[in-house]
């Protein structure tokens, strides 16, 4: 396990913290693997009743590590860890609370679509520039975002790559609450503790009823992943990745 993902347990709450400050919490293959393992282990552990995702001040996550994408675009293998993480996320049996501050790009936005409560700070913008990178939406976002935002605002977000402020995301029903930076972690953990104090079986059934069966969601994630893998090897994606890698600051 790398120190880019830090797992902590506070009573019945498992905290999964992204911790790669020098790269704004861009997520590597090893980080996906660690997060998938933590979700699976926490779900299997009767002592854990809620999962929490947290990032760093100012950077929840800059999305998938683009150097990892570049390696695949250049003919390398990979992607299994992402798939394992997305399946673990879509099928997770216990509630997830996330606390998002600042940068939330790509999977840094879409993983929150699978959370039960997301808190975000006023300076947070949710961005999914998949098409600009020559890619397609992932993590079931092509299904989940239109369901919440309607087709036109979903198109603006997933097609045009338009950012959504925390305030607009809350008004649209994409996240639960906007809280100040210095209250984010406390609010996120307090919600997780509140969840953990509920009768777990009743909460599990209620959550399952609200989510319905996951077959359609998992099928969509698979469909998106097939396109995504093919797109990574496209000229459009290669050009966008090279542009990022060689950009001047
Ligand atoms: N993958 C790999 N490295 C990344 C990264 C990513 N997704 N996002 C940021 N980084 C790295 C930068 O290359 C830089 O590394 P360096 O200091 O070694 O050059 C470091 O993180 C800091 O990023 P920087 O761009 O200087 O910070 P910023 O605050 O000016 O901008 C972002 C932050 C997130 C807006 C910008 O880095 C960005 O657009 N990243 C790409 C986001 C993206 O497209 N993600 C994939 C979505 S599918």
Summarize the structure.
The chain has helices at residues 29-44, 66-73, 80-91, 107-110, 141-149, 151-159, 166-172, 184-196, 200-211, 215-232, 235-245, and strands at 5-10, 13-18, 50-54, 59-61, 96-100, 103-105, 117-120, 125-127, 164-165, 177-178. The protein is of the alpha/beta class and 249 residues long.
- Helices, by number, come to 11
Chemical compounds bound to the protein: coenzyme A
Number of domains: 1
Main sheet specs: 6 strands, mixed
What does this structure look like?
- The chain has 249 residues and is an alpha/beta fold.
- It has one domain: 2-enoyl-CoA Hydratase, Chain A, domain 1 (Alpha-Beta Complex).
- It contains eleven helices and ten strands.
- The strands form two sheets. Strands 1-2-3-5-7-10 form a six-stranded mixed β-sheet, with helices on both faces.
- Strand 1 and strand 2 form a beta hairpin.
- Helix 1 packs parallel to helix 3 and helix 2 packs across helix 11.
- The two termini are 32 Å apart.
- The mean pLDDT is 97.
- The site of coenzyme A has 16 residues, from helix 2 and strand 6.
What features would you highlight for this structure?
249 residues, 11 helices, 10 strands, 48% helix, binds coenzyme A
